[in-house]
Amino acid sequence: MADQKKQSVLGYVFLIPSLAAFCVFMFYPLFYTVYLSFFDWNMIQPQKKFVGFQNYVILLRAPNTWKILGNTFWYIVILLILNWALPYLVSFVLSFVVGRMRGFYKSALFLPSIISLVVGSILYTWILNPVSGPVAILLKPLGIRLPFWTKTDGWVIAGLCIITTWKTFGYNLIVLLAGISGVSPEVIEAARLDNVPLRRIFFDIVVPMSSATGIYVFIITIVQGLQYVFTPIKVITQGGPNYASSNLIYMSYHNAFTLFKTGTASAASVLTMLLFVILLLLEFRFVERGVYYEN
Amino acid sequence: MKLPLDAGGMTDRDGNSKTQGTGETGSAGAAGWHVFLILYTCLILFPIAFAVSNSFKTSSDAYNTILELIPRRPTLDGYRQVFAKLPFVRIALNTFLIAASVTACKTLTSLLAAYSFVFFQYRGKKVLYFLMLITMFVPFTVTMIPNYLLITQMGLRDNIWGVALPQMADVLGIFLLRQAMRGIPKSLIEAAKLDNIPDLKIMKDIIMPLVRPAVISTGIIFFINSWNEYVWPVLILKSVEHYTLPLALQMYISAEGGTDFPLAMAVSVLTMLIPLVLYLIFQKYIISIFAMTGVKG
User: Fold this and answer.
1) What are the structural domain ranges in chain B?
2) How many separate helices (H) and strands (E) can be counted in chain B?
3) Pfam families given for it (chain A) (predicted)?
4) How many structural domains compose chain A?
5) What's the CA gap between A258 and A250, in Å, rounded?
6) CATH classification for the domain delimited by B84-292, as one of 2.60.120.260, 1.10.10.10, 1.10.3720.10, 3.40.50.720
7) C-alpha distance from A73 to closest chain B C-alpha (Å)
8) Beta carbons within 8 Å of A16's beta carbon, 6+ residues apart
9) pLDDT tens sequence across B95-112
10) Residues β-bridged to residue A49
11) ipTM of the complex
């Protein structure tokens, strides 16, 4: 009995290093940010002024906020197409359609995942330069002009999503491939013998049978994607032109470290957190409980 | 390019079906998909070739022959400028010191936590594991202001240890090493405990040899991620001699490009060099461990 007790105490002891780090640099900051969202402060004043929900009211009344929420929506949509739908399709093709060179495609497509997004950002500002970049030069004879995408509403979001996708596509592909590997090849083989078209094999068999991984990647594409895209926003456009490329994450950063408004910055962070919590609940609803469970 | 999902559309498009049989699970349409995949792979790898090629060009060649992948007059000028204009050795060393210490700390704390979660029974274990898992869903904006204030109070702003300090634990490592340790038979550990072998010795002599591949790949992931990290260092590091590689590179970005094209490409190449080498050596490990992150358990 005493031995049992010693064992459970030791269990906690082994957990202390990580738990302590999480408490100091993750859980305490989380609560402190919620606290700061109810105060007017600029990081320097000795006194923080309690303002209740005013930071949230200011935030939700500012016209820029709605523009930025709209941008966030478009970031999510484009990232889901490029980083969830496309790798889902490619992972299906790699698993069941092409056989040769599978390993090569996998390694090559994954490669940018290990490269810094700052490198990606600088390379793409040159590659997609609308005047002197290689893409512009190649398209010129065809009469196609690249838009000045870093300065144009709409295009700027698409451009920044392409850069982010360059880095994150491979990771999502690898995870989806692992998920799809749970689909039994016999089922696919049988469907093929019955001449079921590939489109229906994908939508009617593969997607439902890999849905747990599919939903997981759907959610991390949003949660990680909005954060990953911060890096190209920060180094290329700083949220511009006129907030056209800002998103929820950049809005927090901008309020905190450019405008020194910790209150509105924290309020924006708390709203982001709420969005992610909703996504987390979706994950539990569909994955942990299991609609279709692939294992 | 339109992506035909059904075999019929594909044969209509190609009018033939050259690549078939040998290893291809499905024959119809495979050729078209190979074309698509090869084009897509080239598109993905092009930026890397673009950076390497232009880093070896003279300034005027870089602008005038931007499309040519083989430099006409190869030169090391770009690289010479990197060392002349930046305290490059110092910056590379900063990046390495942060990445190495973060990797060492995270690997150690993850090993201990994973061992605790797998081989001990205690109250609240599930809740604690769950608490750690949900940290994956916490956006960095929620922790950045308090952590910035904390590091400032500790006098560690503009100091590489201020970058490393908040990163001593990582839920990804705990998750991956827990998965690896769950494969070890519990009876093996219980037998060792009955022999009164201390837990740290069990970890070192029994667990470590069994989970070494997982530990190595987790460590490589930590190292590469820290090497590439941008968001947190940019808040903490202010002076060039304390910069890490991504921060130094950032100085050469502007929406219109910039004047130091080969120099910027040289810094890009030097920034991606170490992760690329690690990837080329350990790619099997890295890919298989990343594949595990999507597995529930």
Assistant:
1) 7-11+19-81, 84-292
2) 15, 0
3) BPD_transp_1 (PF00528)
4) 1
5) 11
6) 1.10.3720.10
7) 17
8) none
9) 999 999 999 999 999 999
10) A40
11) 0.91
Residues paired with residue A39 on neighbouring β-strands, in sequence order: A50
CB A37 within 8 A of CB A266: yes
Domain with A116, as residue range(s), is: 66-288
Three-class SS of residue A143?
coil
- Whole-number CA gyration radius for chain A: 23
Return the residue of A nearest to B4 by Cα: A199
Chain-centre distance for alpha carbon A9: 38
In chain A the beta strands, taken as DSSP E runs, fall at 39-40, 49-50
Placement of tokens 């600029």 in the chain: A42
Stated pTM of the model: 0.90
- Which DSSP letter does residue A291 get? S
Q: Which residue has the tokens 């000028």?
A: B77
From the CA of A51, how many Å to the nearest CA of chain B?
Answer: 19
DSSP A36: H
Task: Sort out which chain B residues have CB atoms less than 8 A from A94's CB and list them.
Answer: 37
Cβ separation A115–B228 shorter than 8 A = yes
Q: What are phi and psi of A195, to 5 degrees?
A: 60, 35
Residue with tokens 């202010």: B238
* Residue the block writes with tokens 């596509």: A169
Cis peptide bond N-terminal to A241, omega within 30: yes
User: Minimal Cα distance from B251: which residue of A?
Assistant: A235
β-partners of residue A44 are none
Instruction: Convert the pLDDT of each residue in A71-121 to its tens digit.
Output: 999 999 999 999 999 999 999 999 888 878 888 999 999 999 999 999 999
